[in-house]
Amino acid sequence: MTSGFLDNHVARAWFAFRLDLAERLASGPGERITFGYGGQRSVSLYPGPGGVVIHDGDDVDMFTSVDEAAMRVSQLLHDREGVVHPAFLDAGSPVAAAIREPAPLLGRASSRQLLQDWVHATLEAEFPGPLKVFENGNVAWRNEDDLTIVVRAQNIDRIDLWVTLGFDVDVRKAHRTADKLSAQHVGFNFRMIGTALVMMQSLEARPFVPEHLVKALRRHMRVTNELGWVHEKIRCKPERTLAGTTRVAPELLALLPVARSLGTAELADELTRAAAGARGRLRSWRSVANQAREQARHLPRGDDDPHQVNRSLRISWQRLVDGLDLAIARWTPS
What we know:
Blueprint: H1 3-26, E1 33-37, E2 41-48, E3 51-56, E4 59-63, H2 66-80, E5 90-91, H3 112-126, E6 132-133, E7 139-142, E8 148-155, E9 158-166, H4 171-184, E10 189-193, E11 196-204, H5 210-226, H6 230-234, H7 250-255, H8 264-274, H9 279-296, H10 311-329
Antiparallel strand pairs: 1-2, 1-5, 2-3, 3-4, 6-7, 7-8, 8-9, 9-11, 10-11
Helix pairs in contact: 1-2, 3-5, 8-10, 9-10
């Protein structure tokens, strides 16, 4: 059997994989699709009403075309990770998290890592099923409207919860909707990040009380379930969707709201931790942040403050670019 025959066989197998996956995604919103490989590693897809969300380790991407989504998954698995043949994939198996020691009923974490462990232990004890944990410690859930809720131990003092309510939205509609939702849902922050509308909630973590986290997350889930209509209301019409829209990793989304309040060195430390020390990831994020900063210059002006609109967003992205530049400059092999 020649190597050429094997190459052709493998190519045909991945081609069939892409066709089957695209057809499955085209059938409409459905359950999460997970392709496991390499033991604890996986790529997950969430076919929803606004498109297909792909979770790849720390990164989240979204595609409106099922063919492009299927191609991206094939590239991640075969070209990047070196999975030889689709037959080696463990499809549909979620990645299980390790069992941890219970969190204290009342505690003050001495480090972000310890607070993160307490968050994981609390959620494992309260919510059934395997916990989806990214390499940087973020935890994610998907609700019935295909919206992904993320929980992050931001630092030793604070836990953040957020969900992206819509990608590629009409910016003016989204700003008006965010103002109305902020008035209706006290304790939640609705804001535009790039061309995505995000709902955020912060929880004081000194002291850390597991019951407070569970209540906050259940409330976040309840409000998220009530807002499944938002994406359809604020989405761009196809002809108005911005070309080349930047896809933002959740780690950058988490740091963007606080970027202006952190020093460059502190921000660089946070970015390095979020990237798990991977210089390639830092460089990729730097490119995304720079594109998002430039894109903010061209977003439609608002009605309330046409001279200052998007200025805050541009400054926040610039702060992230500065932090990433420093993190890359200080990088050393681990």
